[in-house]
Amino acid sequence: MKKIIIIDGGPRKNFNTSALLQKVAEGAGTVEGVEVETHRLYELDYKGCMSCMACKVKGRASQVCKFKDALTPVLESIAEADSLVLGSPIYFGEVTAQMRAFLERLAFPWLSYNDYSLLAPKRMPVLLVETMNGLPERNNSQGYGAMEHCIAQALGAPERLTAYNTYQVKDYSRYELAGFSEEAKRRYRDTHWEADLQAAYDAGLRMAREINNSH
Ligand SMILES: Cc1cc2nc3c(=O)[nH]c(=O)nc-3n(C[C@H](O)[C@H](O)[C@H](O)COP(=O)(O)O)c2cc1C
Questions:
Q1: Does residue 215 register a pLDDT over 80?
Q2: CATH superfamily of 2-213
Q3: I want to staple 109 with a disulfide (CB 3.0 to 4.6 A). Which of 50, 55, 130, 153 is the partner?
Q4: What is the domain partition of the chain in residue ranges?
Q5: For residue 61, how many other CB atoms are within 10 A of its CB?
């Protein structure tokens, strides 16, 4: 059985980010021999890198974080997985704090301070999902930022899936959100959201087929 791990770095269940990730899982789940495991970071009690340096101890260096908390089984699972999907809303131009903290724990053990190489236990296909208020032609997103370089080096060049101009609340009339035109949001959603969901489904399907065909 091949395994795809999905990491949901958004706080809201059943909103934009998690809806896209669920579609990725749905697409991947149609391929026989592939299982999907989803972890919601906001449901786990963990910290970012503690700088304990346990992953760099001579003779016992590890490419998987040695600090023990609720993230430990997730990181161990990723080390043995066949592909990885990360999803996050964009907060103040970057991924969420939970996603960032997760990425510190994932990537610091990959980094060698001997030669500055970035080596994961296993290379694998990666999909980076982001959702935001911004538009394709005007947004402030730096996406996964510096962490994307680490991911590309250690796991392989990631595929990217972005949903723009998302609905932030179900009913704009109930909130102080006058800077947004619900009418314009609705028009954008009506013409893009189904395609975003389809692209997520297709990406999951493609990823599952790819890992199923590799040895
Ligand atoms: C704290 C916070 C900060 C945000 N910052 C940005 C931002 O800098 N740029 C942007 O385009 N959208 C920003 N947004 C909007 C979210 O990225 C967008 O609504 C996203 O699709 C929410 O994902 P969700 O529906 O899965 O929660 C922000 C939302 C919140 C709550």
A1: no
A2: Flavodoxin domain (3.40.50.360)
A3: 55
A4: 2-213
A5: 15
Tell me the CA–centroid distance for residue 90 and ligand 1, in Å. Answer: 5
pLDDT at 24: 98
What's the mean pLDDT in 144-156? 97
Q: Quick: pLDDT tens for 22-81.
A: 999 999 999 999 999 999 999 999 999 999 999 999 999 999 999 999 999 999 999 999
Question: What is the pLDDT, as a whole number, of residue 40?
Answer: 98
Instruction: Retrieve residue 61's tokens.
Output: 């260096």
Side-chain-side CA neighbours of 21 within 13 Å: the count stands at: 30
Which of 133, 164, 192 is the best mutation target for the ligand 1 pocket, counting ligand atoms within 8 Å of the beta carbon and taking the most?
133
Distances (CA, A) of 163 to 86, 101, 113, 181, 208: 14, 23, 36, 18, 21
Decide: 135 in ligand 1 pocket, CB within 6 A.
Answer: no
Beta-strand runs (E) in 34-146: 34-40, 83-89, 126-131
Question: Measured from the CB, is residue 162 less than 6 Å from ligand 1?
Answer: no
The Å distance, Cα 75 to ligand 1 centre, comes to 26
